[in-house]
Each structure stands twice: as structure tokens, then as C-alpha cells.
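User: I'll paste a sequence; please echo it back and then give the predicted structure.

Assistant: Echoing your sequence first, then the prediction.
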Amino acid sequence: MTIRAVVSASPEETFTIFSCNSSDAFDFDKDGLSNAQEYATATNPTSPGDYFKATNPTRNANTFSVSTAGKAGRTYLLERSTTMALNSWTTVATQGPLGSDATVTLSDAATPGDAAFYRIRVTGP
């Protein structure tokens, strides 16, 4: 399973919201995610315990499901690929934009017979 946040945040937005080193590539709280990734997923780049992560990946019969801690204003897309090639990803489930923070569970009820790769893409305001 591949989990990836797709992001683009300006250094000024990151600095204004969180008052930390505003470089997109910098990881202020040392949790493994850059400031830009944390901005895109609405996690706090100054708190090492607040970061984007996928939980409970499961596959039962033909259904794959995964959860994450959803943040208000963000939309979560579960994408699938059988090759991981650049333009091979297909959105199979969407939830959001969320009105408030809540657990998001995304499912693919038509998993391919062999192998598949999944990622969660996060979009926001």
C-alpha cells in the first residue's frame, strides 16, 4: 500500500498559520512530513504527534478499506493503480470536504484480482 499526500503550500501561508520555519521542504517538528505536506493535510507542522497517517488497511474478499484522521475543510480521495506508473491512478472513493474533524474510511469495493497499490490524496482550500 502506498500513502501519499499531494501538496502545494506557499511558505507565507505556512508561516502565518503556524509561526515556524516556513520552508515547504523543512520538517519543523521532525515527524517525517514536510511543512508543505502538513499544510495540505491540515496537520500542525509544529506538533510531532499531529501528522497524516493511514490506519486499519484491510482487504476482505473484493473490498479494500483504509482510514485516516480527517480534518475539516479537506477532501480525501482513495486512488488505485495496478502499476504505480505516473498516469495510472484512478479515484475509487471520495469523502469530503469535511465539515469538522472526523475519522475518514475509504473503500474500494471492486479490487482487482491480482495486486493493486493504493494511495490517499488530500485536497483542500
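The two ends are 27 Å apart (CA to CA). Residues 11-18 form the longest helix (8 residues).
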